[in-house]
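User: Sequence recovery, please. Input:
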C-alpha cells in the first residue's frame, strides 16, 4: 500500500503512525497554487474552500502514486459528512484507482472505526498497533506543546527568524524519531533549542494576546491561512489557536472512558450562543471566543472558509458576543482568491486598534 492523506498541520504525525506500522507513506506536497487550481477545477463550484484544497491534494497524491487515501469523516449537518463520497467519485471519474479509508468518530460508528483500524493494521500484531498509537500520541502531545510555545514566543524573538528556524528544526528532530529513546532525545534537544533563543523582556501589560478561532482546516493549515500565526507574531502578538490535533484526537478518537477532552468544556461555553449541533466547528468557535476572553486575551481572529455554512452561522452571532464580552473580533473569509496584501493590511489595522485601546486604558488608569 502507498498511503497518503490530506495535508493539514503537523503532517509528520500521520506519517509517523503509518510508518511505524510498516506502510509506504507518501506525503503530498504542502498546498500550493497548483493544488488550489487542481482542486477548484475538479470540485463542484458550490463546495467549501477546504473541500477544494483537499481535492487538489488528493489529485497530487494520486499522481505521485498513492493507492490508498486516509481521511477523517465529518459529523453533523455540514458538508464534511459527504466529503469522502464526493472526493471518491471525482477521483474515480478522473481515472484514479485507490482504496479510500474514512475514519469517523469512534463514538459515531464503533464497528466501522475498528474495521478501518484493521485495514491499517495489516499483518501487524495488535500489540504493535497499540505501541505505534501510544508512541505517536505521546509525540503529538509534545509537538503541540512546542507548537504553542512557538506561537506564543515568536513575538518576543530578538533575532528575526530565530523562532521559526527552531520550529523547523524541532519538526525535523521529531520526524526522525522512531523509538522511545529517540523521542526522548528529540524532546530534550528541542527544549535546549528553545531555551537558547534570546527573547525580549516585555512587561505583562504591554503583551497582546490573540486567539484564532474558526473552521479546523483553515485554522490549522498555515499554507492556506496566509501563515497568519507568523504574521501576528511579526506584529508582536502572542497567538493561540482554537484547534490542535491532540485536542481533536482526544475528542474524536478516544473512547469515552479514556477521554480527557477540553472540548466538552468549550462546547458548554458556546451553548448560550449556538444551542444545537450545527456541524463543522461553529459551536467550538463561539465557545473558544468565551474561553479566550475569560483567559485574558485581547482580541480574536475568526477564520471562515468561503462557502462554509456552520461558520456563517457563528459569524452571525459574533457581533453580539463581541459587544457582550467586550472583546474585538475580526472575521476573515478565506478562499482561493484570497489577496494576501489586502488581508495583511486589514490584520495590521485590527492589531493597531487593539494596541491603541490597551494604551489608552493604561493611560486612563495611570
Ligand atoms: S465546516 Fe465548513 S468548511 Fe468545513 S467541511 Fe463543513 S462546510 Fe466545509
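Assistant: Recovered sequence (366 residues):
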Amino acid at each position: 500500500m502507498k498511503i497518503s492523506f490530506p495535508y493539514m498541520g503537523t503532517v509528520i504525525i500521520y506519517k509517523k503512525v503509518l510508518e511505524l506500522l510498516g506502510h509506504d507513506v507518501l506525503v503530498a506536497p504542502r498546498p500550493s497554487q497548483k493544488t488550489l487550481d487542481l482542486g477548484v477545477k475538479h470540485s463542484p463550484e458550490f463546495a467549501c474552500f477546504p473541500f477544494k484544497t483537499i481535492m487538489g491534494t488528493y489529485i497530487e497524491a494520486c499522481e505521485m502514486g498513492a493507492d490508498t487515501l486516509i481521511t477523517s469523516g465529518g459529523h453533523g449537518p455540514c458538508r464534511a459528512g459527504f466529503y469522502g463520497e464526493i472526493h471518491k467519485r471525482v477521483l474515480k471519474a478522473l481515472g484514479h484507482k485507490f482504496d479510500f479509508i474514512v475514519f469517523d468518530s469512534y463514538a459515531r460508528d464503533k464497528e466501522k472505526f475498528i474495521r478501518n483500524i484493521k485495514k491499517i493494521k495489516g499483518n501487524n500484531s495488535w500489540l504493535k498497533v497499540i505501541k505505534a498509537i501510544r508512541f505517536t500520541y505521546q509525540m503529538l502531545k509534545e509537538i503541540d506543546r512546542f507548537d504553542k510555545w512557538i506561537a506564543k514566543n515568536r513575538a518576543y524573538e530578538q533575532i528575526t527568524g530565530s523562532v521559526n528556524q527552531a520550529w523547523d528544526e524541532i519538526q525535523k528532530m521529531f520526524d526522525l524519531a522512531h523509538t522511545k529513546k529517540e523521542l526522548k532525545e528529540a524532546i530534550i534537544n528541542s527544549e535546549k533549542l528553545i531555551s537558547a533563543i534570546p527573547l525580549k523582556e516585555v512587561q505583562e501589560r504591554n503583551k497582546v494576546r490573540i486567539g484564532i478561532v474558526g473552521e479546523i482546516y483553515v485554522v490549522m493549515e498555515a499554507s492556506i491561512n496566509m501563515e497568519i500565526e507568523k504574521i501576528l507574531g511579526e506584529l508582536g502578538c502572542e497567538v493561540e489557536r482554537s484547534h490542535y490535533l491532540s485536542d481533536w484526537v482526544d475528542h474524536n478518537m478516544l473512547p469515552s472512558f479514556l477521554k480527557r477532552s477540553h472540548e466538552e468544556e468549550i462546547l458548554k461555553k458556546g451553548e448560550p450562543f449556538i444551542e444545537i449541533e450545527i456541524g463543522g466547528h461553529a459551536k467550538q468557535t463561539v465557545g473558544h471566543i468565551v474561553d479566550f476572553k475569560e483567559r485574558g486575551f485581547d482580541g480574536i481572529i475568526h477564520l471562515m472558509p468561503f462557502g462554509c455554512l456552520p461558520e456563517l452561522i457563528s459569524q452571525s452571532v459574533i457581533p453580539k458576543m463581541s459587544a457582550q464580552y467586550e472583546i474585538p473580533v475580526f472575521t476573515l473569509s478565506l478562499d482561493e482568491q484570497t489577496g494576501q496584501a489586502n488581508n495583511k493590511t486589514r490584520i495590521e489595522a485590527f492589531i493597531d486598534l487593539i494596541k491603541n485601546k490597551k494604551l489608552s486604558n493604561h493611560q486612563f488608569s495611570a
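The chain has 15 helices and eight strands.
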